[in-house]
Amino acid sequence: MVLAASSLQEALEEIGEAWAEQGHAQPVFSFAASSALARQVGQGAPADIFISADEEWMDHLAARGLLRANSRRAVAGNTLVLVGSAGGAVRDLSQLGEERLALADPEAVPAGKYAKAALEHSGQWAGLADNVAAAENVRAALALVERGEAPLGIVYATDALASDRVEVLQEFPAASHPPIRYAAAVLDASRHAEVDRFLAFLAAPEAARILQAHGFSAPE
Q: Tens digit of pLDDT for each residue in 126-155?
């Protein structure tokens, strides 16, 4: 059982298939916001591996002694982008007016925290905070833009790549927010015989190739 950030869905499902093709049992994935998954682990949810879209929620579990010692590793990076409905009239944050800006929850979810940091860096957060439509995870934020419920949203570049209903309007500089780093670790309660081998597979060349094909970068 792998608990993973929602932005990893397509890539991890393909990695799981590649793993199964080598004769291993098919992994079971549960995708949600890293914050929600970390809370589930803290409440005793049975799982073997946790993959977070930031280091903070991994630190949270490590501080509680819920990660297997020395199992933590970075597996991927990402880029933050502004997206709009394909062909939409609103093309820039300055055109937003009273309309909504879709973000993952900026107080808890990694994608939302990165977005808030980027807007604070550019001096735009104070003027846009009241426009924010906070979603439970980054894919839910993407869906708000896809459905036209928000003309603009800030998501990962990989989310935009996975959708044919939005287009990228702006890429935020890497220096405008903390590094986007996906961390994976074995949960201390796991007793699955293959958990260490699957974690190693996540960092192997085949998995790295799949992650790159889905728009992820190598971890810093």
A: 999 999 999 999 999 999 999 999 999 999
β pairing state of 80-85 and 166-171 = antiparallel
Q: Look up the CATH number of the domain holding residue 38.
A: 3.40.190.10
Nearest to residue 153, comparing CAs of 180, 122, 181, 128?
Answer: 128
* CA neighbor of 158 nearest in space, from 40, 32, 6: 6
> 12-46: per-residue pLDDT in tens?
999 999 999 999 999 999 999 999 999 999 999 99
In a domain, 23, yes or no: yes
Q: Residues with Cβ < 8 Å from 11, sequence gap 6 or more?
A: 76, 158, 210, 211, 213, 214, 216
pTM over 0.70: yes
CB 142 within 8 A of CB 125: no
Same structural domain for residues 84 and 170? Answer: yes
Question: What span, in angstroms and rounded, lies between the C-alpha atoms of 67 and 61?
Answer: 6
Q: Residue 220 — pLDDT band, cuts 50, 70, 90?
A: confident
| Residue 188 neighbours by CB distance under 10 Å | 15
Cα–Cα distance measured from residue 128 to residue 102, given in angstroms and rounded to the nearest whole number: 11
